[in-house]
Amino acid sequence: MDKSKVNTKDPASLETLVKLLTDALNGTKSNTLDGDAQVAIDEYIKIAKSLRGFPNGDASEAEPRWKIPPVSPRAF
Amino acid sequence: MFRQFAGSIPKVNSERAENLFRLHPVELSSLLEQAWELRKHDDIGDQKVDQGHPNRRSNLPGLPHYLLRFFACSEANIDNVCPLPKVVGATPDSANAPPIDPCREPRNLPSCVTWNHLIYAYMIENTGIYEIFRRVLHEFRHGEALGVPLDGADHWLRNTEELFYRQPPSFSIASLNSFIRPDLNSIRCNAYYRMFGMELNHHKEDQINYVKAKAANNEFVNTLEEFLRKVWVGIINVGNSSGENRTDDAEIANLAEKLHDMLIARRIGGNLAREEFYFVSMMSWFQLTIEFDSPIVMSLRAEGPSPEERLHKIAQRVGKPAHALSKNFFDMADASSRILSQIETNIYKNPAAVPALYTNIPGGPIQDIKTIITHWSITTGHDLKSKKVSAN
Prior knowledge:
The structure holds 2 protein chains of 2 kinds.
Chain A: H1 11-26, H2 35-52
Chain B: H1 2-5, H2 14-22, H3 25-37, H4 65-68, H5 74-81, H6 92-95, H7 118-125, H8 129-142, H9 153-164, H10 184-196, H11 220-237, H12 249-265, H13 273-290, H14 295-299, H15 307-318, H16 326-343, H17 355-358, H18 366-380
């Protein structure tokens, strides 16, 4: 959040100010990113997903994207 | 790649891993070939990327698809692994016309597969795992000092010996050995040295002789450590609401660009792509082996709660010690691979993108950065969380 954009005559802006002060007091500053930094985050998530081997990169998915051949019964 | 095949990142899928271990070596080899053929090979929008970029590691062809289709699941994998075809109109069906006339067959396979960065192989190998399993194979192949293999371990022994302790078959993407470079250990050490300016911590003990290329990234370690130090400053300051903020985005961007330039310089013309592909696949096989109580682990009576415990037990059985800090190497292998892969896209040369590295966003790089800083500090003894001390 950009503190310089807080306009004390604007209720929405005042909300922002209250949020800033609350976060500062609680030590819970909310982290949001804009523009290029958010693009970098999105790209990073894509890389991580791509390396996992699941269709959507989510390891909780039931089936990995790679099919592996069935094992011969004689292998047991 | 084998952990991807087994669906074992980040958590091992032991059932699939055991099935993988029981396949015929040529089936495993064909999976590797297919992964290479389906590798990511894309430009970014209108921007053409050069060979070496993570989106285009190499232009070298793998085994043609009309040969790979003789192996089970190769057709299904084209549909499943890369759901969206690369070229409009080149649907998986049209890309895989029946093998009536391979001469007329389109070769526009989809492209999406990525593999770990070479740093992953370097980290895993530093545990000593490759040499430890060489001893395991040696003992099982020369006698019964370690007992006889349990059910499933026999398959693992055959596959491991076939894939990683002999000359790969000619024309395979993994066939790196030749009259020019006969020793696989030397090829790996040469690749690590060129890319990172680093040697394996046990290379002297194991007497690995290799060619030290003049074109090597000798500044890699210093640059990476400085980069991590600066990002750490960002991490500890990102929550500041007041007071001084020493985070220097421009400096981090400068260091990220330096890292990008030196890493990509080693990859120009597709250099080291095949080596990276084969070595990260090799190390993922070994990591997968000890990520659970696999048949060979049980054969060796090396069951344990974690990969490093299993490795230490196996090491004791064969009298070849594992690295005392193996846990740290295992823990940072994947994280460092992801971070370096993204650095190689050069996205952080833009200072405006740098906050992504130290801002706590779910799924963002900060967790991996913290992991690397912690474990790198432990394994090297260089405290990256403290300010760098320089002599005046």
